[in-house]
């Protein structure tokens, strides 16, 4: 009974400490103008992607051959492509595919990597040795090359692209989380948790992960931008999202033939990709400084 009361009091104290740390991190983040600018841009892009079916001026697949290759104008803000489709409408709708690919693939790879990293970091020993050697083999292969190989085996399409991008992101998460857990594994609060017979899953979820997850948060934020770039690269070579669904990389690929004569077809998808990657990197830098202010010094 006394042990139970001590454990509940310890949980309450730890919960309050976590809430205080979260408030402190958010306060630091809110003071970083660059990070907040990146966050605002990402939120605006998400809002535009969600509302795209209702706010785009034309249907993304509506063709008008009489207006093909038109430059930017009031009628077509970003011009039209080789089939007379409105590029601005396709950019808005294409944000759904591009952002979904980046976020879904990163979330899946992070969750799987956290499960594996938690196990090898906590137990160590032969499990750690075997898993980390497999991680070394995967990391020896360039991420884009691994994604191309997996996409070529699975075929093109949205879900196959998500799977291909997810597998490439798992090794980094495993290595990051394992390193963080190795640093906290011998802390006194873990010995206290073992003393009160705290189960292994509870120890990992309640005591280890909250104190080891900071590098993962920063890695995820920056990794989304890199994943979006890789998704665009796969679509560029025909292994990503397929027509008629618009996707920024696929739009870039279809416009490469006309790059010299009609540069607007390449310019606007390129700006969209650059903008989302830049804003995510700005937010990631801000999160890194907010989670560990010593790094800024």
Q: Summed up, what is this model?
A:
Helices cover 76% and strands 0% of the residues. The chain is an all-alpha fold and 297 residues long.
Give a written overview of the molecule.
- This protein is mainly α.
- The chain has twelve helices and no strands.
- The termini are far apart.
- The model is unreliable at 1-7 (pLDDT under 50).
Q: How are the elements arranged and paired?
A:
Elements: H1 2-31, H2 33-55, H3 87-123, H4 125-140, H5 143-154, H6 158-184, H7 188-195, H8 200-208, H9 214-236, H10 248-255, H11 264-291, H12 293-296
Largest sheet: none
How many β-strand runs?
0
Q: What's the overall average pLDDT, rounded?
A: 82
Q: What is the structural class?
A: mainly alpha
Number of helices: 12
Beta content = under 5%
Q: What would you call the shape?
A: elongated
| Element pattern in H and E | HHHHHHHHHHHH
Low-confidence spans: 1-7
Tell me the helix content: over 70%
First-residue to last-residue Cα separation: 47 Å
Our Rg estimate from Cα atoms comes to 23 Å
Question: What are the key terms here?
Answer:
297 residues; mainly alpha; 12 helices; 76% helix; 0% strand; elongated; disordered N terminus
